[in-house]
Amino acid sequence: MKVIPLSEGAFTIDKTKIFVPFNLKVDDLQQRPIGSLLVEVQPFCIVTNQDILLIDTGLGFSKDGEPQLYSNLKQNGIQPQQITKVILSHLHKDHAGGISFRNNIGHYSLSFPNATYYVQKKEFEFAFETGYPSFITDEFAILHNSPNVTWLNGNGNINNYIYYQITGAHSPYHQVFFIKENNETIFFGGDEAPQLQQMKSKFVAKYDFDGRKSMELRQDWWQQGNEENWQFLFYHDIKKPMYQNQPTV
Hints:
Helix content is 19%, strand content 29%. By secondary structure, it is of the alpha+beta class. The strands form 5 sheets. It has a 6-stranded mixed sheet. The relative contact order is 0.14.
């Protein structure tokens, strides 16, 4: 399988839950509000034998009149129309902003009209109940009656090689993905396993719905993943979007 990180850039985020662009070359984290986190926002494209997948959709920023995701894909030789599946860990605005694209008259359309979108039904309902600032419902309301959506209910698999599991630690219906093909396993832990360093340390994050569960899940995934040589994808890691333990010979 081929993995392509699709970074929208680096940002800081504080208690306001507003993502502020951060230039790694010139900006100083100490000049941002106390408690600011420095994160990357980085969807992933995965090319498998069956599909061209997109995992999460970023903040949905535009660049030169089109979604930044489009230009990121094109730079890697993939046209947006080639995306066959969009799988979503959850609907927080930094993961769901690129689900749709808003034109210059305010109309929303699906960013990937040839793809099937896979969304946990309870996550969608929870997002609408909760709303701003964590969720920008206008950006994903189009999913409600769309024929492009497959609603997920609990744990399961897609085409017997994409396995999804509700973990509910970062948000109540957050899910993670295991993509298994040709004796390879790619693991995407969304915001419960967002950065490499978090896998190696033991801490409870205040921004999680259930921080202790997130911590315990990270420990379990890290141990099992290294034993089984998973490729980890880190959505918010500034330096290391992917990691795979090298097997011993």
